[in-house]
Amino acid sequence: MTEREILMRKIAANDFAMLDLHLYLDTHPNNNQIAEKLNEYRTKSAILKKEYEENYGPIMQSNENGNRWAWISNPWPWDSSIEEVC
């Protein structure tokens, strides 16, 4: 697995944890400990995404970095085999 893929997996795992904490806070809105943990994950998410975008270009269309066609150099979903994904 490349450094790029490792970083993207870290971002995905972090964002999944944030979503999970959001769902928990929907049913436990007064849990300050979890709210603080969510803020830690938000900070970590911003750091990871900034690192990725500095090294590999924008993650999302809204994060345009000035290189108009940067997305075209990324591998397409069908360019990797199932063994590489799993």
SSE string:
HHH
Instruction: Give a count of the beta strands, DSSP E runs of length 2 or more.
Output: 0
State the distance separating the first and last CA atoms: 11 Å
Shape: elongated
**Over all CA atoms, what is the radius of gyration?**
16 Å
How much helix, percentage-wise, in residues?
55-70%
**Number of helix segments?**
3
**What are the low-pLDDT stretches, counting only 5+ consecutive residues below 50?**
none
| Strand content range | under 5%
Let me know the largest β-sheet: none
Mean pLDDT: 85
- Structural category is mainly alpha
What's this model, at a glance?
The chain has 86 residues and is an all-alpha fold. It has three helices and no strands. The protein has a domain at 1-57.
What brief labels describe this structure?
86 residues, mainly alpha, elongated
Question: Could you describe the 3D structure shown?
Answer:
This protein has 86 residues and is mainly alpha-helical. It has a domain at 1-57. Helices cover 63% and strands 0% of the residues. The chain is elongated, with a radius of gyration of 16 Å.
List the helices and strands and how they pair.
Layout: H1 3-27, H2 32-56, H3 82-85
